[in-house]
Amino acid sequence: MIRTSSLTLAACALLAGTALASAADVTYERLLNQEPQNWLMNHRDYGSQRFSPLEIINKGNVKNLRLAWAMPLGGTSPNEYTEATPLAEDGFLYITDVWGVVYKIDARNGTSGTVVWKMNPGQERPDRNRGVALWGNFVISVHGYDGRVVATDKESGKVVWDKKIGDQPDLELTAAPLALRDSILIGASGGDNGVRDWLAALDPKTGDMQWKTFMVPAPGEPGSETWKDKTEAWKTGGGALYVTGSYDPTANLTYWGTGNPAPRYDSAYRPGDNLYTDSSIAIDPKTGKIQWHFQHTPNDNRDYDSAGSQIVIDGKVNGEDRKQLIHANRNGFFYSLDRANGQFLKAAQYSAKVTWTKGIDPKTGKPVDYDSKKDVQTFNHDWKGDRSVVQNACPDVHGGTNFWPPSYSQKTKVLYIAGNEGCANIVPDETAHVRGKFGGGGYVNEARITSSLAVIDPASGELKARKDLPYPNHSGVLSTAGGIVMIAMLDGTIVAYDDTTLEELWKINMGTGFVAPPMTFAVNGKQYVAIASGLNPVGRAKLARSPEMRDRSNATMLFVFGL
Fold first, then answer.
1. Are 238 and 216 in contact (CB under 8 A)?
2. Identified catalytic residue from 146, 170, 278, 303
3. Residue 10 backbone zone (phi > 0: left; psi -120 to 50: alpha; other: beta)
4. Which residues pair with residue 115 across a beta bridge?
5. 501: burial class by Cβ within 10 Å (0-12, 13-18, 19+)?
């Protein structure tokens, strides 16, 4: 880990001195051992830690952070938004908008951003897009409901290959691709639409399919016995992969989280544990075979996905060195697993209020109310009236955390989780059991939603601190070697905290909210923080629960800050 400013400055100065007309290929070796000034993949590193070794911006000077420049994104329709993390390579940024348009932006002068090229894929309709991957001389992008993956030449902006891999109506591609040595991993989503989701590997040179593994098993496959219905619910069973996975190069395993089963609120329609939904899964990237799984919420009826970041760390648990996979789940709990075999190690509640279960069994990691003899789980339901409505379900159906990523600091050795605080009443709808309407009902609650920044020690499994915040956070967390932790909220506020005390060090409100994560990069010896704005429909609905925010403006921008 880079500890000193002199090293990071030297690296950036070396870059500036070369004045390359075109950047080098993004090789597997570069992805594995990233230059400190760059951010070459969605979570920055294969471990999904979202920690930057840069410390030019630090606790002592972050108070001087100012807007360096801003750039509009999209702009072809009202109420657009951006969920993408910009990638940074040697002063050039790569980002997508809601239409799947890929931008290459020259950010080297530090005072403005210049669009080098745009690749417009001609996407039929807007959709969530969480960013691109860099591989070789290609920028790899996914394209929503089109079900397409496109490789663009990094220098010219010309399309090299364009493959349609979507195989079902209403399937979506929203997670940023994961680039490995010889493959590009693509996760399918759209589970709430009645999609049977999968993870696929493509040949990065051609886009040809190498393998595809479904997250909901077909009859006769391992795990199929956990779908005990007579309606063939497995065919539309969900299990979306909408957050980019991680990778352990030593074990040669990739780790992905899966979404809820469908229909999401009516678990009686699909009795059984419904594997491999709501699970952390280890997969052999050469073959696509599932090596192990751990299911967090069996027979889920609250939309408690496990699709969030699967974070790779090495640390001690009970005094013993362990190779861990840690995960902040949408259900309000943090989990620590042995990433070699999926063995449950620790759990801790990070959400302030959890009502769906009375706790997590310290031996099995299952909810203490889970009954293996039941095909339809009730957990700790608070029924209303005729038992058709689950009331006061906490966390809210969107979490806890969700697609917005936590960050593990290599400096403090703790995990920072941005989690929403609130509850919902859940109303299943048995008439919605048709493809395209598998929401299966809805949720009703007009109460205010807030958020918190929770700090978990993965070694002890303890909640070390929680900072309450006035508005929801659908953006996530960035931590750095400079000792700062940065978040952004739906009301447009960006905040930097001391990574040890959680003291507020800097704050600004940009007038438009955020559902994309912050990141940081350096060029010409200067460090910058970048974040894209614009509220998605869920974010607008959550923010509207705060009456003073119901008329908040919305703009899709890329903001870049520097000292």
1. yes
2. 303
3. alpha
4. 105
5. exposed
Q: Which residue carries 């399937």 as its tokens?
A: 171
Reading the block at residue 383, the tokens are: 């029924």
Predicted confidence (pLDDT) per residue in 458-504, tens digit: 999 999 999 999 999 999 999 999 999 999 999 999 999 999 999 99
Identify the CATH number of the domain in which residue 114 sits.
Answer: 2.140.10.10
Q: Is beta strand 383-384 parallel, antiparallel or unpaired with respect to 415-421?
A: unpaired
* pLDDT digit string, tens, across residues 402-457: 999 999 999 999 999 999 999 988 887 777 676 656 655 677 777 899 999 999 99
Q: How many helices (H) and strands (E) does the chain have?
A: 3, 37
**In DSSP terms, which residues pair with 507 in a beta bridge?**
495
Residues 6+ apart with CB under 8 A from 421: 351, 352, 353, 395, 449, 450, 451, 452, 468
> CA 132, CA 151: separation in Å to the nearest integer?
10
First to last CA, the chain: 23
Q: For residue 107, what pLDDT is reported?
A: 98
User: For residues 514 and 474, what is the distance between their CA atoms, to the nearest angstrom?
Assistant: 7
Domain that holds residue 447: 5-562
In the 3-class helix/strand/coil scheme, how is 448-495 assigned residue by residue? CCEEEEEEEECCCCEEEEEEEECCCCCCCEEEECCCEEEEECCCCEEE
Query: Is there a contact between 32 and 252 (Cβ–Cβ < 8 Å)?
Result: no
Q: What is the residue whose two structure tokens read 């909901």?
A: 216
Ordered DSSP codes for 294-358: EESSTT-SS-----S--EEEEEEETTEEEEEEEEE-TTSEEEEEETTT--EEEEEE-SS---S-S
Instruction: Flag whether the pTM goes above 0.85.
Output: yes
Q: How far is CA 429 from CA 232, 239, 379, in A?
A: 18, 20, 20
DSSP structure class, residue 353: -
Cα dihedral 409, 413, 419, 423 in deg (nearest 10): 170
Counted domains in the chain: 1
Residues of the chain with pLDDT below 70 are 1-23, 383-388, 432, 434-441
Report the alpha-carbon distance of residue 380 to residue 356 in Å, rounded.
5
Tell me the C-alpha distance between 230 and 256, whole Å: 29
What is the distance between the alpha carbons of residues 503 and 496, in angstroms, rounded to a whole number?
9
Q: Cα–Cα distance between 241 and 264 in angstroms, integer?
A: 15
The single-letter DSSP state of residue 10 is H
Cα 192 from Cα 208, distance rounded (Å):
27
Distance CA 442, CA 538 (A): 13
3-state secondary structure 507-557: EEECCCCCCCCCEEEEECCEEEEEEECCCCHHHHHHHHCCHHHCCCCCCCE
Q: Is the omega angle on the peptide bond into residue 350 within 30 degrees of 0, that is, cis? A: no
The DSSP code for 196 is B
Q: Give the Cα separation of 539 and 449 in Å (integer).
A: 11
Active site residue 303: yes
